[in-house]
Amino acid sequence: MVSERALQVLNKTGGEGGNPLSASFGSDAVDDTSLGARVRRLEALRAIDDLIADLGRAFDAGPSAEALRPLFTADARFVIDRYGTLEGCDGIAEGVAGNAESGFCWTLHYLVSPRVALTTGDETAEVEFYLWEIATAVSGKAYWIGGRYEALAVVDGEAWRFSHLELKADVISHYPQGWTSKPEILANA
Length: 189
Known about the structure:
- The chain has one domain: Nuclear Transport Factor 2, Chain: A (Roll).
- 32% of the residues lie in helices and 39% in strands.
- The chain has helices spanning 4-13, 22-25, 32-60, 65-68, 89-102, and strands spanning 72-80, 85-87, 104-118, 124-137, 142-156, 159-175.
- A six-stranded mixed β-sheet has the order 2-1-6-5-4-3.
C-alpha cells in the first residue's frame, strides 16, 4: 500500500500543478485519487501474480496441503477437467495432496501468461493462465500435461485467494522415454 506521505512526495515532485504524471501525459493526467486507485490496482495485479506462483509451488511441493490451503477461500471450488471436483479449502488441499498417493507423485508446474481482469472495486478478478507441466505418475510413467486454468480470485481478509479454479487440459500425454537425471557435464547431454 502506498502511504499518504508517499503520495504527498510524489505530488511535490511531479510536473504541472503538482501532478507527477502531468509532465509526461499533459494536463489531462490523473489526479491524486486516481493515482492512488492505479497503485491499488497494480498492487492487486501483483498479489494475483504471487497467488498463481504460490499455486505452482504448492503443487510441486509434494503437493503440500499446508501450502495449498491458504490459497483458496473456505467455499472454493476446484474443477479438475473431467476428472473431478474438489470443494472448500480443506477439501482442495487434502484432495490434491492425496493425489500423490494414487495419481501424480512428482510434478513440475509452469504457470505462465496470466491474464487478469479486475472488477470495479478491485475486490474480485477473472484470471486465466496457461499450464505446462511434466509429471510422474505413481505407476512410474512420465507425462506431459498442457492446458489452461480459468479462475476467479477474490480478496478474502487480507489476501487474494481463489474462489473458483478450473483446469482445462488440452494435453495429457505419456512420455515413454521417461525422465532421466541431469548429465554430469552438458557435453554428455
